[in-house]
Design a protein that fits this description.
Blueprint lengths: L1 E5 L2 H8 L3 E8 L2 E8 L2 E7 L4 H14 L4 E10 L9 E9 L22 E2 L2 H13 L7 E8 L7 H11 L3 E3 L2 H11 L3 E9 L5 H26 L1
Parallel strand pairs: 1-4, 1-5, 5-10, 6-8, 8-9
Antiparallel strand pairs: 2-3, 3-4, 5-9, 6-7, 6-10
Helix pairs in contact: 1-6, 2-5, 3-6
Length: about 230
């Protein structure tokens, strides 16, 4: 079974609207949607914003269902000049930019004791996702396989965002991916993170995010739908 996690309702609904034979199951106040997508058994859930919400949801999903893969979808803020609004980033790896224990030992910023610093996405899923996007007709957006940074902060301060980009050589920033990745890493579940760029460091982040979230969510849902055919 493929587990799909989205942070917000618009991101989740874009996938739910494509699923068939849906059954709703409530577990620990989370609504899980079991169903079929492109002939594959899937379970979809809206985790809520932030690292704790997403990590909690990922672990509940893995505990309650027979999960073969976890795919996290959603939006992100672009950090590099080559990424424009509505472009797509496939994560090669993820790191928590706000995790810092450098003051208590020989650690790098973002490094987590006993688990490491970067969580690598499944190489097969990355390859299949890239192929899926390249096959889409009339594609008006660019794709990038890059590094995603995660933290409990919406990137509305350009100076802070650019420092994070520099510290981690990051391509985009969001609030859930790396915490889901950490849970999957610990549970030995292959995972992938796909993010559409909803805003950039142009001083207009808050407005752009709300303006483009729905369009970005639809694009990511189309990618996921076609990706699942290949898994």
């Amino acid at each position: 079974m493929i587990g799909i996690i989205a942070a917000e309702e618009k991101e989740m609904l874009a996938i739910k609207n494509k699923m068939r034979n849906i059954e709703e199951e409530i577990k620990y106040d989370l609504i899980f949607f079991k169903g079929n997508l492109e002939g594959k058994d899937c379970v979809l859930v809206e985790c809520g914003i932030g690292k704790v919400n997403s990590a909690r949801t990922a672990q509940i999903m893995i505990d309650m269902y027979d999960i073969d893969y976890v795919i996290n979808i959603g939006s992100a803020g672009g950090l590099t000049s080559d990424l424009k609004i509505e472009d797509i980033v496939i994560a090669k790896d993820l790191v928590q930019h706000d995790f810092d224990i450098t003051g208590v030992g020989d650690y790098e910023k973002g490094e987590i004791a006993r688990t490491g610093k970067y969580f690598e996405c499944d190489k097969r899923l990355i390859k299949l996702c890239k192929e899926t996007i390249e096959e889409l007709k009339n594609r008006k957006f660019n794709i990038k396989i890059g590094r995603i940074v995660t933290g409990d902060w919406f990137a509305s301060d350009k100076n802070k965002a650019m420092q994070i980009q520099k510290d981690f050589d990051a391509d985009c920033i969001e609030m859930e991916g790396a915490s889901i990745a950490q849970v999957c890493f610990l549970d030995k579940i292959p995972f992938l993170v796909i993010r559409g760029i909803s805003d950039t460091q142009n001083g207009n982040n808050k407005i752009d995010f709300h303006t483009y979230l729905e369009d970005v969510s639809k694009t990511v849902s189309e990618i996921l739908q076609n990706l699942i055919k290949k898994i």
